[in-house]
Amino acid sequence: MRSFGSDNNSGVHPRIIRALTEANIDHAIAYGDDKWTRLAEEEIRVLLEDSSIEPFFLFNGTGANVVALQACTLPFHSILCASTAHIAVDECGAPVKLTGASLKEIVTTDGKLTPELVRPHLHGFGFEHHSQPKVIAISQTTELGTCYTPGEIRALADLAHAHDLYLFVDGTRIANACAYLNVTLKEITSGCGVDIFTLGGTKNGLMFGEALVPLRKELAAHLKYYRKQTTQLYSKMRYIAAQFIPYLSENLWLENAQKSNASARLLWKKMQHVKGIEITQPVESNALFFILPKEITDKLRERYFFYDWDESRNEMRLVCSWDTTEQDVGDFIDYLRQLTD
User: Fold this and answer.
1) Burial profile 2-11: b = 16 or more Cβ within 10 angstroms, e = fewer
2) Residue 79 lies in a domain
3) CA distance 140 to 168
4) Are 210 and 324 within one domain?
C-alpha cells in the first residue's frame, strides 16, 4: 500500500539494506566497539568539519531527544518548546518523566519559536518556587513542515546563551531542512550556535537509528550513561552505524531528503488546483497541510492513509518519503479530483 501518512511508513533504501548485509559478517565487539561505529562517527565529524565531536548512535527519535535533554537538564529545570513540538505532543510524556524537567509550551502559528515568543518565559531565575529555564528546544524541520533559517537559529542561540540556556535541535528531519535551504549541516548546527542536536535516519531511508551530536564538551560528558539508562544502547551497534556510513559518505542523507521534498512540492503544485482546498502552511519540506470538507476527506481515506492534524477544522497532514514517485502523486491527485469535481 502506498500512502502519504508518514515518512516512517516507507521502506529502507536499497543501499542501506546492502550496508546492513555487508556488516552482517563474522563477529564484532558489541556496544559500539567495532569498526563500523568508528567509521560512522568519523563521517559525522567530516560533515561538521570538527574532529573533536563525539557522536552517539541510538535506536529512535524519542530516545535521542530524551537522552539529549537529560544531558542538558536537572529535575528543577524547564524546557521551552513550541506547543506543536514532538517532545510536547508525540512522546507520551517521556521527556518529562525521564528528565524530571517541566515543559513550557509556547503557541506559534508556524511551528517556529522566535526570540520574541521565548523572552516572556525567561523569568524566575534563582527563585526556588519556579522551575528554572535551561533549554530552548526546536524541531528542524518543525512539526508543521517549516524550516528555521541559520539566522533564525542564531537569534535563538544568542538568546539562550545570554541567559545560560542551551539550544537543542530535534533534527529527525534536519536533512529536509538542509535540502530546502540549500545549506550544509554545519551551517544550521554548529555554524549558528546550536549546542546539541539529533541527526535523523529512520524517516529518511534507514531501517532504524538516529545520531545524537553534542557540540559542547560538558553535554558529551555523561551521554553514554544517559544512553544506557534510557535503554538506547544497542548491543549490536554495528547495525545502526553501518547504515550511517553510506548514508553520509555517499550523500544519501541529502539526496533522499531532496527527493521527498520534491515530491511534496509537486503534490503542492497539483493540489492548489483542487476545488475548495486550503493549504494551511508553506511547503518547505516533505509535509503538506490542507483543509477540505470532511465528507471528502472521509472518502479520500477509503483509498489513502493519512493523519488528522487539527480535527477541530478538519486539517490533514500528508507526508512524502524518499521513495514517493510522480506516479504516487498523480494517482492521489486523480482520485482527489474525482471526489471534488
Assistant:
1) bbbbbbeebe
2) yes
3) 10
4) no
